[in-house]
Specification:
heterodimer; A: 569 residues; B: five-stranded mixed sheet; 4 helices; 10 strands; elongated
């Protein structure tokens, strides 16, 4: 392991300047999980803003019927890149590479990830892939314009000639490997680098969810990556894998893509469930209700998620409807368990509405709406009505905005003091929430109605006679509210950078191990670790009288305990 | 530090209730956004109407669950705020009976929903042995070709493309068998007022029956993104009385091949 010389503990008023000064070389060469985690968070947030900007343009185009704000080709490129950037360059890596990198080693009490150099490689692959993706707008013919799902044969060399489509494939190939490497690192770190006393059932739920997410990454991403290789071969070496004419099957692309694509949905969701599961107990001053149920619910979601891919293909007429329908509906059960665990944690608690909690409760409220329309879509006949309409668009934007924006920014505001050593401004974080929350409902609710009124997704132009004008206007205004809310976020970051308020090691009175060290943590994370006797070691240390109220849930069993690790604390 | 007594005395209760009012108003506002079940098309075919009825059932269940869970969340927000710095709630880790309940009840609900789904999807996808009419619909970039197999062995066709959105007719209350294919990329046959969509894919012939129950002209589209002029793949379907349909179909242009 290449480890840099120890940084001196944070002196919040001068430390950022210090870091800034020795920035570039440090940043380029670091294998510290905290530096890489922050790199990921900043990079993915920039991608979020890029993808969001594309969404703003899409909503401008749809504000008027018969609109000619963009050309059709540009519109097709915009929604293709919006989907790809948001899902594969923001939503996933923001959590499983950004938060996971920063937080998981701290939560398990490790000095770094298991493979720090692989971790750095993973980041640089991701950054290269992301730059390639965005630069595809600059090539002749523009970016890929076949939708983020790239259905064959629309994505073949005949229907989508041009370098934009190739860059799309290559970019996802690189970021796919980046994700696989992150997955390997997370699994190894969680299994092998836990501190003494940190049994599996004392891991914070965030780390549990990251472990399960990493396993799903290892199941799903190799499938996408190989499908991309096949697509590239079809495009350039005439292999006909997805062409009927050469004896191939276009439907195979859908199977491969969604066999990746549906676990991917849970790769996007589980980390944010984990974030919320960590936040709600802290601000309710209670332990997580039904911890083990939560763990098993996560494992069940992961297991079921590998058997639901064809619910994206109900209207193809070539999949076994009852099987995929049943599997999909069953996922509602573990998701429901999670909801009741979160509610059970708040029930009779002492809830303090600091900004992370506001965002987390916002997540509960908005994600429920997306979850319920998900159960509707799990029924094939109802999918026959709504497939590929704005009903679907509304559903997955509720689910994805619910998790990645509401869950993700809950996490960002929660751990921002830990990562930077300084507080953000609460009122700005709450204003960010308020505007995003209003925008969310304004954007998605009319989309459900437009979908039921027959508006297909991915159309650039509609007619006044279609009757979708006012619905689209509301939706556009909502989307712009969400976009504008990020100005509060940027302002908040700016203020906390210019006028730092020191955070201290544990500003939220939280319980998991990352709050036992300074903010930001020193180079190897911990000078000392408190004894770990529950999933809230720091809480136990700070509130010994309340810790006694705990039942001795985990007897000191033999054998299943912590693995030895390298940091010798 | 000591554990504070449960604050839910009669006085606290009253204040919670008075504070619950704005919360309930907010909840009502949110729910008013969820009237999409009123927005469904009722389905102008026999198959589509089955889908509509199933949708109603799902909407009711989804809204009931939604209202219940949202109410629990809003109740927590309103009733369990921290009262003072030394307010330490009971540190409950789990409660097995509740956990069993909130696992098994959703399983039962899902089971019922699946049962209704299974019955409905079999009826919707059922194809009869002897349809009254047979037609082939071919999707292409960017339009549609509607071919009728006439009883006299001849064929008749209607073409719809971006220069001229075509109209094909269907006889009311008769079963029309549709074979759906594509000439190039994946398309999706979508008549919103039939509550029905189906993919057209190369290598696959999708077969389904349409039994219109309402006369009128309905717009149809391509729902699957299929390239540059995806949004111009519009067609119309006109449901008419069977006799009128026969007259119309007989005077159609017959392809020479």
């Amino acid at each position: 392991m290449t480890l840099l010389a120890e940084r001196r503990p944070a002196a919040p008023h001068e430390e950022p300047h210090e870091e800034h000064r020795r920035g570039l070389l440090y940043w380029l060469t670091s294998t510290d999980h905290k530096v890489i985690g922050k790199n990921y968070l900043v990079t993915t947030t920039i991608f979020l803003l890029c993808g969001g900007l594309m969404a703003m343009f899409i909503r401008v185009q749809l504000f008027w019927p018969n609109s000619h704000f963009t050309t059709q080709e540009t519109f097709n490129q915009l929604f293709t890149m919006h989907g790809t950037v948001m899902l594969l360059l923001f939503a996933g890596p923001f959590a499983f590479a950004g938060f996971a990198n920063y937080i998981v080693p701290l939560q398990v009490g490790a000095p770094d990830m298991a493979f720090p150099r692989l971790n750095a490689l993973s980041y640089w692959l991701f950054l290269s892939g992301g730059i390639i993706m965005l630069s595809s707008f600059l090539v002749a013919g523009g970016a890929a314009s076949f939708g983020w799902t790239a259905y064959a044969p629309l994505s073949d060399s005949l229907n989508s000639p041009g370098a934009g489509a190739d860059l799309w494939v290559v970019s996802l190939f690189l970021t796919g490997f980046s994700a696989i490497f992150s997955g390997i690192n997370l699994v190894a770190t969680t299994f092998a680098l836990r501190a003494p006393g940190m049994t599996m059932f004392r891991l914070p739920i965030f780390t549990w969810n990251m472990l399960v997410t990493a396993i799903l990454i290892l199941i799903a991403f190799p499938v996408l990556t190989s499908a991309l290789v096949m697509l590239y071969f079809d495009r350039h070496f005439h292999t006909h894998i997805f062409e009927v004419a050469g004896g191939g099957a276009p439907i195979l692309w859908q199977h491969l893509f969604w066999f990746f694509g549906h676990p991917e949905v849970y790769i996007l969701a589980l980390p944010y469930f984990g974030i919320v599961s960590d936040i709600i107990p802290v601000f309710s001053r209670r332990p997580l209700f039904g911890y083990r149920g939560m763990v098993f619910a996560t494992l069940t979601i992961a297991g079921l998620s590998t058997g639901v891919w064809a619910h994206h293909m109900f209207t193809t007429g070539v999949v076994l409807l009852p099987f995929f329908s049943a599997m999909t509906m069953l996922i509602a059960v573990p998701t429901g368990i999670k909801f009741f665990s979160w509610i059970g944690t708040m029930w009779r608690g002492a809830i303090q509405f600091k900004s992370p909690m506001v965002w987390a409760v916002g997540f509960l409220v908005v994600f429920l709406a997306g979850g319920l329309s998900g159960v509707i879509l799990a029924s094939p006949p109802l999918d026959f009505y709504t497939n590929n309409t704005y009903f679907i668009v509304a559903h997955f934007h509720e689910v994805l905005i619910g998790t990645t924006i509401f869950g993700g920014f809950a996490g960002l505001y929660f751990w921002y003091p830990k990562m930077t050593g300084r507080m953000h401004r609460e009122w700005l974080a709450n204003a960010h929430f308020g505007l995003a929350f209003i925008g969310f409902w304004l954007q998605t609710t009319p989309q459900y109605v437009a979908g039921l009124h027959g508006m297909p997704r991915r159309i650039a132009i509609y007619q006044p006679s279609d009757g979708w004008t006012s619905l689209n206007r509301l939706s556009s205004i909502g989307a712009w509210c969400i976009g504008a809310s990020f100005l509060f976020f940027l302002w908040n970051m700016w203020i906390s950078w210019r006028k730092p308020v020191p955070a201290g090691s544990n500003p939220w009175d939280a319980g998991s191990l990352e709050w036992a060290t300074s903010s930001p943590p020193p180079h190897h994370n911990f000078h000392s670790i408190p004894p770990i006797r529950s999933e809230r070691p720091v809480w136990d240390a700070n509130h010994p009288d309340l810790a006694e109220l705990e039942e001795p849930r985990i007897p000191a069993e033999v054998g299943s305990g912590p693995s030895g690790n390298g940091h010798g604390s | 530090m000591t554990v504070a007594p449960d604050p839910s005395g009669p006085r606290a209760r009253r204040s919670i209730r008075s504070r619950a009012l704005p919360g309930l108003a907010l909840l009502a506002l949110l729910l008013s956004g969820c009237t999409f079940h009123m927005e469904n098309y009722t389905g102008a075919t026999k198959q589509g109407h089955l889908i509509y009825r199933l949708f109603q059932g799902f909407d009711i269940v989804a809204l009931a669950i939604g209202v219940f869970v949202w109410a629990l969340i809003f109740w927590c927000i309103l009733a369990y705020r921290r009262r003072h710095r030394e307010h330490w709630p009971p540190q409950t880790h789990h409660n097995l009976p509740w956990e069993v309940a909130y696992t098994t009840i959703p399983v039962l609900i899902v089971g019922v929903l699946f049962g209704y789904t299974y019955v409905a999807e079999n009826s919707v996808n059922k194809v009869v042995a002897n349809p009254d009419n047979v037609m082939t619909i071919t999707a292409f970039q960017w339009g549609w070709k509607f071919d009728y197999n006439l009883p006299d062995g001849g064929k008749a066709e209607v073409i719809s493309d971006p220069n001229h959105y075509g109209t094909f007719e269907l006889p009311d209350n008769q079963v029309t068998r549709v074979n759906l294919v594509t000439a190039d990329v994946v398309h999706e046959f979508d008549v919103p007022e039939f509550d029905f969509e189906r993919y057209a894919q190369s290598g696959v012939v999708n077969t389904f029956d349409l039994t219109p129950t309402k006369t009128g002209t309905f717009i149809g589209r391509c729902a699957q993104f299929c390239g540059l002029h995806h949004d111009l793949m519009i067609f119309y379907v006109k449901v008419v009385q069977p006799a009128q349909f026969q007259t119309w179909v007989q005077q159609l242009e017959r392809p020479t091949t």
